[in-house]
Amino acid sequence: MKGAAPAGEVIGRHVVRLLLVLLMLLPMEPRWALAVSSEYKLKAALIYKLTRFVEWPLTDGRRSEFGICILGRDDFGSALDALESRKVHGLPIHIRRLVQSEAVDESCQILFVSESKRPFLRAILASLEGQPILTIGDVEQFAEKGGMIEFVRGRKRIGFRINLQQAMRAGLKIAAPLLELSTIVETKTS
Length: 190
Prior knowledge:
There is one protein chain. The chain has an 8-stranded mixed beta sheet, covered by helices on one side. The protein is built from 7 helices and 10 strands. It has one domain (31-184): Rossmann fold. By secondary structure, the chain is α/β, with parallel strands linked by helices. The radius of gyration is 23 Å and the shape is globular. The relative contact order is 0.13.
């Protein structure tokens, strides 16, 4: 007759099983989230650089951070997280990832609207009209549909299409050097 396993061995097996179960319960990041494309690394850098060319209306001084929000699928991954070590207008940057447009509030000074929100784009932008939130996206015709800055891919660079009317309605001022590098579009009424 074989002897019973020592107590330490039995406990060790239970610990290993418990760890395996816990590992299976942890959320796994999808493969696309692990490697950030060079395009989205560049777009993250551009979002930061845009803050130098945009003036937001003065607030009552209660703001303690500068919010950059992503609405919908996040293709930026860790590229945007790196911005949290920087400041905009003396305020530390805070990155927020939002699933629903109802979560967008005054803590967002910049809102990047993801391609995954394309079906709801007009409604999202209409709900933000007049608020001092710089809306940015790379969805085709983003600027015509009421977004403020649309990233457009060129052959070797990313360009800008700006809806200056929308920015002005929100009380945002866009500096002339950025406007000179951009195509100005108007909001379509439909």
